[in-house]
Design a protein that fits this description.
The protein folds into 4 domains: 203 residues, 3-Layer(aba) Sandwich (Rossmann fold), CATH 3.40.50.300; 96 residues, no CATH class; 182 residues, no CATH class; 196 residues, P-loop containing nucleotide triphosphate hydrolases (Rossmann fold). The protein has 24 helices and 18 strands. It is globular and about 80 Å long. With 706 residues, the chain is of the alpha/beta class. The protein starts with a helix and ends with a strand. Helix 20 links the parallel strand 14 and strand 15.
């Protein structure tokens, strides 16, 4: 479908941007445009037969390539020519808003491409007018709406919440606010906001009497006309998990671009995991039983509902009894934990559920599925009644109970999924699911949380994304590990027939020095390594420079801070003392005032932090950032690889560490004029067999390896 006319349109758009913005064309940027255009050119046009090759490309484009311009001028013309919608997904809401507020308008002005665009957010970012009405007219706690997850948020005090809700309804009425949380002039405490919003399970959609004023549906309406839809990874994955087309257009009608795409596999895992907290689920069942008893008198007037309503109390009671049995079984499993092992988390090797837990899990899976079926039938009857002008039940009561039943159904389905995952036992899964139980303590009371998660996102994305999307572009500055795409292929399941390309950064890395200094210890001796950092950092850091010191563990960061000379502690801004944004603000302020400044940070400062020019002269990395093997998902993945005869350390740990080291060292050079130093206080890079592979995966810095 990549016709000569379409190629010309892409070239002209790029040339126009370069000329009007007085930019020099970059070789890497042009490579990226060509790769995207050729990959999306595999999408069949109207009447064309599929090529048999996936319209997917994975592009690692180094910092400074100009990815946003490249994928925009390449993908927008192709999407328009094919009649597809371009969905650009960023990793965060902040990047999303930058793309809509700054990048796209700029590209539109300078490229001579004509396109429309809209910002997409989930329901939880918008106020629910129906809930707001109930909170104000019936009073908080009297609205009749049963909380979906009462354990997640404490109910705010009425004296605190009602003035906020009143201000919201007034602002909506005056037209001063569009219902978008991000456009509210002040901060809204999470519990207060949560009470005034909803999700898909509690939304009555087109049947809602407030649909014409609904902030979410108004925003969604804009998406139906936009050429480019800007979302974030979570929203795209949530839409795919709902089957596609629930919030965004159908995947078959979309070309997706995942910026910061190295996050995609991990984001996908979180959307397909399940959990159940036994003690709070018991409390929720109790509240639901009381609520159903109150509602039976009202809803019983609806024809055909008496039978389903009559089944609910027994179903709730049966599930409650079985949950209490499960709680006893789980408690017994913790009693069997060997002394010296972690007594707060019980991970099941190879994802296999103990035989003592499987029967009650199967019973609970069946019970919650039966409860879900009953609730689903009741919800359907309520939806029909909402459309009936002559219903025996008032609209207000119908709406309240639609919210309640929808929320109960959502939680019952999620709980059924967890127990079904435990009922299967996990003996024949390849790869296995990760299954683990955590002991929770609150005010001296014990509770148990059961979790289940895939260990790889490959099967999920193979089912929901790759075969359904019209086309997909994955791009990031860090996708490869050890100069290979194998790690991303393993985790994402992307076809090996996709197009893969590494586009080098235009930066001159010889302007920066990568140094491994002499040290008489390695991080394996944690105490000696910490002592060495306390002694050496004052030698390595210049008092008048801007430095970023990155640690892999909070304990070592705190120990080094406490051990270092007091004169240095005054210069240090440490993660945890203030918010990330505040630390960065104070750092820039000190540098602008001509003072030296040092940031002590953990993993969140090793990625996504932009300190160009004078704001970062020196990056110190305490050690090669091997992951601490305390994640049940990572432990289960390593276990599976070892069981297949692989080497989990070389196949998982080393590539992951190499990728994180590239990201951490990437904090130094943020513009073409930047220079400085990266110091790695870890001699394993030079002494261990895997060190050479990690070293060769780093950018071509000038090296000082002592």
């Amino acid at each position: 479908m990549l016709t000569d006319a379409l190629k010309d349109r892409i070239r002209e758009a790029y040339a126009s941007v370069m000329e009007k913005k007085s930019l020099k064309p970059r070789w890497g940027q042009r490579q990226m445009i060509a790769e995207i255009a050729n990959a999306l050119g595999r999408i069949p046009g109207p009447g064309e037969a599929p090529s048999g090759e996936p319209a997917v490309c994975v592009i690692e484009a180094g910092t400074g390539t100009g990815k946003t311009i490249a994928y925009s001028v390449a993908a927008i013309p192709v999407a328009q020519a094919l009649g597809k919608r371009l969905v650009v997904a960023t990793a965060t809401v902040a990047l999303q808003e930058q793309f809509v507020g700054k990048d796209l308008p700029d590209i539109g002005r300078h490229s001579e491409l004509e396109f429309s665009y809209a910002l997409a957010k989930g329901r939880r970012r918008y106020v629910c007018l129906s809930k707001l009405d109930r909170l104000l007219t019936q009073g908080q706690g009297e609205s009749g709406v049963l909380p979906l997850y009462p354990d997640e948020f404490e109910v705010p005090l009425e004296a605190e919440a009602l003035p906020v809700y009143t201000a919201m309804i007034d602002a909506l009425g005056r037209g001063d606010w569009d219902g978008d949380r991000d456009n509210w002039p002040g901060a809204i405490p999470e519990p207060i906001w949560f009470g005034a919003t909803t999700d898909h399970s509690q939304c009555s959609g087109r049947r809602c009497p407030n649909i014409s004023q609904c902030s979410f549906y108004r925003a969604r309406e804009e998406l139906t006309h936009a050429d480019v839809i800007v979302a974030n990874h979570d929203l795209v994955l949530a839409d795919l998990a709902l089957g596609g087309g629930a919030i965004l257009p159908e995947p078959e009608d979309c070309i997706y671009i995942f910026d910061e795409g190295h996050h995609l596999p991990d984001k996908a895992l979180s959307h397909f995991a399940s959990f159940c907290r036994i003690h709070t689920t018991l409390a929720w069942l109790g509240d639901s039983g009381k609520s159903v008893a109150q509602g039976a008198a009202i809803l019983g007037a609806l024809s055909g509902l008496q039978h389903q309503l009559g089944k609910l109390p027994e179903q709730i009671e049966s599930a409650t009894g079985s949950l209490k049995v499960a709680e006893q079984v789980v408690a017994a499993l913790f009693d069997e934990v060997e002394p010296g092992r972690d007594e707060t988390r019980l991970r099941f090797p190879h994802g296999r559920v103990p035989e003592s837990l499987q029967p009650i899990a199967a019973t609970l899976a069946a019970q919650f599925q039966a409860l879900s079926d009953s609730l689903s039938r009741i919800e359907s009857a309520l939806e029909e009644a909402l459309e009936d002008e002559f219903s025996e039940v008032t609209k207000d009561e119908l709406e309240t109970w639609h919210l309640n039943i929808g929320g109960m159904l959502s939680r019952a389905e999620a709980t059924a999924a967890l127990w079904q995952a435990y009922a299967t036992g996990g003996e024949n899964e390849q790869p296995p699911m990760a299954r683990w139980i955590t002991l929770l303590e609150n005010n001296g009371l014990h509770g148990f949380e059961l979790r289940c998660s895939p260990i790889l996102a490959s099967e999920l994305l193979e089912e929901y994304l790759w075969p359904r999307a019209a086309g997909v572009v994955i791009t990031s500055a860090t996708i490869t590990a050890l100069n290979s795409f194998e790690r991303f292929i393993l985790h994402s399941g992307v076809s090996r027939d996709a197009r893969f390309k590494v586009v080098a950064s235009p930066f001159d890395y010889s302007r920066a020095v990568f140094r491994v200094p002499p040290m008489d210890c390695e991080p394996g001796d944690a105490e000696a390594h910490t002592a060495a950092l306390v002694a050496k950092l004052p030698e390595w850091l210049a008092p008048d420079e801007a430095s970023l010191v990155l640690f892999s563990s909070r304990r070592q960061m705190l120990d080094v801070f406490q051990g270092i000379d007091a004169r240095w502690r005054e210069r240090i801004l440490m993660q945890g003392d203030s918010s990330k944004q505040e630390i960065l603000r104070q750092h820039r302020e000190k540098v602008d005032a001509g003072q030296g400044s040092v940031i002590f940070g953990l993993a969140s400062f090793a990625e996504g932090v932009d300190l160009p020019g004078k704001y970062c002269d020196h990056v110190v990395i305490a050690k090669i950032p091997f992951a601490v093997p305390d994640s049940p998902i990572e432990a289960s993945l390593a276990e599976w690889i070892e069981a297949r005869g692989g080497n989990a350390f070389m196949e998982i740990s080393v590539p992951d560490a190499a990728l994180k080291l590239v990201q951490a060292s990437g904090r130094l050079l943020r513009t073409e004029e930047d220079s400085g130093r990266v110091t790695l206080a870890d001699r394993r890079l030079l002494t261990k067999r895997y060190g050479r592979a990690i070293l060769d995966s780093l950018p071509p810095f000038t090296r000082e390896l002592n």
